[in-house]
Amino acid sequence: MERITVAGDRPYDVLIGPGVQSQLGLVLDGTARAVVVHSRSLAAAAGAAVETLQQAGVAAEAVVVPDGEAAKTAEVAAGAWEAFGRLGLTRSDVVVGVGGGAVTDLAGFLAATWLRGVRVVQVPTSLLGMVDAAVGGKTGINTAAGKNLVGAFHPPAAVLADTDALAGLPAPEFRAGLGEVVKCGFIADPRVLELLEADPTGRADTTELITRAVQVKADAVGEDLYDTGRREFLNYGHTLAHAIERVEDFGWRHGEAVAVGLVFAAELAVAAGRLSRAEADRHRDLIAAVGLPTTYRGDWSRLQSVMRVDKKARGASLRFVVLDGIGNPTILTDPDQAWLDAAWAAVSSEGTAP
Q1: 331 close to 268: Cβ distance less than 8 angstroms
Q2: Which helix H or strand E contains 33, and what residues bound it?
């Protein structure tokens, strides 16, 4: 088992390895009541979590939400709040999120808003959830205007990344999680890139890849919870990615959209004279090798409009994380339109669906 401590005002541990969900009762020892929020497809995993808690003396109940991004709506949140009220969830109790990135986003948001904040423990069941959504304290739901525009910063009390859950994860979902892993390699840990270049499936070194990706995020989040400094670099590839997700009505998996966003950001950096052609080609080659899309065909005008209402924007300014070389991220504000158009041409010339 690996243990990474995320620093900050409220430090917490991320436990990574096979069977770590069994630690749930120990993590919540002394808690009177817990509500386990889970998607319909994860009833078995949620049931195991409820049983673990009950054996530890915690009164646990389950609240079921839709699968995927369909869970991240105001209507679903309102229904969960009503359930919390019926179950008598108090400020000393806890919300447990069991599921992929969408469910952990929702569970964190519910915990942040119920009684102005109760504890949340995240039990991610997807690779994406383990390396990204469950760690860092960003919570949120979607609106018609865009992704995660309603939310709160609410760090978890603990994260239990049980790698046993990945054995039954569908291959497309596992590959999508690799999009966030690749991102961490490019912005901070080139060893991640080497591991994936040696084994593009990510299966040979899964625990090490997760641990390294979580460490990258922990280092950024511990220093900057609120996205005002170093943490913003974790948004590499996300400006275009979130626009693609919104335009596609969340029909693309997050990691698939991030993959295209990474290629776009690399091409933007080349156009701006910050990144070499070889380094940009390394983005495209590795992302293609792991089985993720490197191209997208869509309405460029509409995508630009959506990007301008992304939560990472500042006023009317477009902001992109780009690289001044591998492992050296920086912010590019209001890039020249010609650079944007060149990057778009590079990712749209042979657009295909994931």
Answers
A1: no
A2: strand 33-39
Structure tokens at 150: 């309603």
pTM: 0.93
CA dist., res. 181 & res. 161, Å (int): 15
User: N- to C-terminal Cα distance for the chain?
Assistant: 34
Q: What is the length of the chain?
A: 354
Domain ranges of the chain: 2-168, 225-348
Examine the pLDDT at 216 and tell me if it is beyond 50.
yes
Return the closest-CA partner of residue 320 out of 253, 256, 238.
238
For 61-65, 239-243, 296-300, 315-319, which range has the lowest pLDDT when averaged over its residues?
Answer: 315-319
Domain 225-348 has CATH 3.40.30.10: no
CA 332 centroid distance within chain: 22
Say whether 225-348 and 2-168 share the same fold. no
| CA distances (Å), origin 269, targets 11, 180, 193, 333, 342 | 35, 19, 19, 12, 10
Q: What is the mean pLDDT of residues 164-177?
A: 95
Which fold, 2-168? Rossmann fold (3.40.50)
Query: CA-to-CA distance for 129 and 105, rounded, in angstroms?
Result: 9
